Amino acid sequence: MSGTKEEDRKGSSEWREFFWNPRTHELLGRTATSWGLILLFYLVFYLCLAGMFALTMYIMLLTLDDYKPTWQDRLATPGMMIRPKGDQLEITYSVSETESWDDFVHNLNTFLSPYNDSYQVQTNDNCPPDQYFIQEDSGEVRNNPKRSCQFNRTVLANCSGISDRFYGYDRGQPCILIKLNRVIGMLPGKDGQSPYVTCGAKREDSDKIGQLEYYPPNGTFNLMYYPYYGKKAQVNYTQPLVAVKFLNASLNTDINIECKINSNTLSAGSERDKFAGRVSFKLRINDK
């Protein structure tokens, strides 16, 4: 028993002596000079690492353009999106239940507020249609900020929310807005031919979709809204829209719809990328 206590005291004494040895003035086995040198080494080491990282970031930032991506790896055809979105690209509502479509109307009102004619007249140019609005830089002299063309809300006619503040949702004739994703420098048409949108039902629902109306006429994205120069260079850019109005779609049934872009410069989407140049969504209009 006494041997065990003596061993415990010896072990405790060795541990205390390792932590602080009063004879050699060592802390954890190192003298103050040794600790100072090793801390100085790591301080210099990490300062050098931080300096190399900062220098690398500085050199990299010198190669970047504030207004245009240095490298732009993009798809041959941009994607499309609809408004209002709905849940997972589904527009489902009941004509007789106001609360079922009120969020859609609110979503469209909010989205279209920057397109009000009064705002567009103040901030953007009245451009000649059917031709690109090209604003080139003069060598090293930046032509910034670049101007943008007006897209007036009234162009959407019956889907503008002005003459019909419910966008047709209260009458079972809903409006869907379509936009083409922004791509810097994209020229989506040639020979004065603007790209346009067409919508149709999937094969199994072809007899349910009914008649459609497009605004602007023929569902065009006019060339005057291109090219896009980027958010920082073209701060007031207003993205063009196409509105599709469903005049007599079948009620109380799911209708699977696909809208796609048609252009003489943009290639059609492939099976590898089903969202390039098109968007699919489901529409269901209930009468109760």
UniProtKB/TrEMBL annotation:
<comment type="similarity">
    <text>Belongs to the X(+)/potassium ATPases subunit beta family.</text>
</comment>
<keyword id="KW-0406">Ion transport</keyword>
<protein>
    <recommendedName>
        <fullName>Sodium/potassium-transporting ATPase subunit beta</fullName>
    </recommendedName>
</protein>
<dbReference type="GO" id="GO:1990573">
    <property type="term" value="P:potassium ion import across plasma membrane"/>
</dbReference>
<dbReference type="GO" id="GO:0036376">
    <property type="term" value="P:sodium ion export across plasma membrane"/>
</dbReference>
<dbReference type="InterPro" id="IPR038702">
    <property type="entry name" value="Na/K_ATPase_sub_beta_sf"/>
</dbReference>
<dbReference type="GO" id="GO:0006883">
    <property type="term" value="P:intracellular sodium ion homeostasis"/>
</dbReference>
<dbReference type="Pfam" id="PF00287">
    <property type="entry name" value="Na_K-ATPase"/>
</dbReference>
<keyword id="KW-0630">Potassium</keyword>
<keyword id="KW-1015">Disulfide bond</keyword>
<keyword id="KW-0812">Transmembrane</keyword>
<keyword id="KW-0325">Glycoprotein</keyword>
<keyword id="KW-0739">Sodium transport</keyword>
<keyword id="KW-0740">Sodium/potassium transport</keyword>
<keyword id="KW-0813">Transport</keyword>
<keyword id="KW-0472">Membrane</keyword>
<comment type="function">
    <text>This is the non-catalytic component of the active enzyme, which catalyzes the hydrolysis of ATP coupled with the exchange of Na(+) and K(+) ions across the plasma membrane.</text>
</comment>
<keyword id="KW-1003">Cell membrane</keyword>
<dbReference type="GO" id="GO:0030007">
    <property type="term" value="P:intracellular potassium ion homeostasis"/>
</dbReference>
<dbReference type="GO" id="GO:0001671">
    <property type="term" value="F:ATPase activator activity"/>
</dbReference>
<dbReference type="GO" id="GO:0005890">
    <property type="term" value="C:sodium:potassium-exchanging ATPase complex"/>
</dbReference>
<dbReference type="InterPro" id="IPR000402">
    <property type="entry name" value="Na/K_ATPase_sub_beta"/>
</dbReference>
<keyword id="KW-0633">Potassium transport</keyword>
<keyword id="KW-0735">Signal-anchor</keyword>
<keyword id="KW-1133">Transmembrane helix</keyword>
<keyword id="KW-0915">Sodium</keyword>
<feature type="transmembrane region" description="Helical">
    <location>
        <begin position="37"/>
        <end position="64"/>
    </location>
</feature>
